[in-house]
Please model this.
Amino acid sequence: MARILGTGIATLDIINTVDGYPAEDSEVRALAQAVRVGGNTANTLSILAQAGHECRLAGALAGDMNGRRIASELELRGVDLRHARRIEHGAAPTSYILLNQQNGSRSIVHYRDLAEFSISDFMDIDGIDSCDWLHFEARNCDDLAVMLAFARSVVTDQPISLEVEKEREGLEALWEYPDIIIFSRAFVQGRGFALPEDFLREARSWAPQAILILPWGERGAWALSKNNQLLHSPAFPPIEVIDTLAAGDTFNAGLIHAMLSGRSLADALVDACQLAGRKVGQFGLDGLLTPLAAQENVLCPLNSLPDPGARGFEVEDGGVMRAIFVVRQGLEAYGYLNNCPHLSAELNVTADTFLDEDGRHIRCALHGALFDIEGGRCFAGPCEGESLTRIGLRVERGQVIFRASAKPPQLR
Model:
């Protein structure tokens, strides 16, 4: 899979679902509320990570409670934060969103009081030339123009993409560097264009070297290739529009993934529209890009487990039902058969009590044997030196996933 560097913003979205947009100076009750990570680049990377791409965020992260939550959730989704700038005393950007249940539309109030990711932050990144794709969000344009110029000077044939969501001062300095520019419908209409084709032909004079992309919601998306071939894909609306939030970010992820997979521009445009259509038919971003393999089972979200903590499950493994348990430590999860090697008995007496009092070791409730969490080896008790039986387990997209074996593991 590809190594993708995304430069842009990560926010905390507070989403209230309402039964129709409220009138001014009125009071309504929300039908539901969700709090999750947002931001254009953060969303796009979160989706691309679902396909196994190595996704790294180059952006600013605050050190407050919301900033720590953003960082934790991005890491759970598989986004690497090694290049993020940590601002310990900053306030995390937030977006307050009203989601209209009747038609899926949304209205957003943004709050921003955090320093932008800067030129010096970008220059400190090691290995930019080793990335397979560089994606940028058009903001802080004076600094971004220098970042794009630097990126252009160090990469060879790796694509550089730029997303232009809204009008910003200094955009004209950005056009000469990207290989792909993705414009939003709001930006295009704000510049007075009613027809996608007219805008793309005008924009060709700004960036003669780039592929130009323009998604247009329910009308699909257009692209203008480097040789000026105009392409169009229809939209793929779901049976019911549920949540349009991050549909554009999803389109971007679908386009990047398709092009990295060797798809033609025409096919990539269709893939991106299909993925965006799938997004607006569901809440959130989970499970969008790649379905789990049939032999794998999602046990639970990792963040539903205490840290540290454990939970027992019943799973089918090699055609046999097995009692297992999962232990969480930070961003890791470890799984074992619920079977003590001492007397082949289950370790717990009451539900989900697999750890000792301080949560540092696995403990058998019958005779007090203690096992290390990372490897399951007994270091104290009647079966010292023996080990618990590991089961196939991994964390992906924030989910704890059990992978069944071809045949059931043998009990010790």
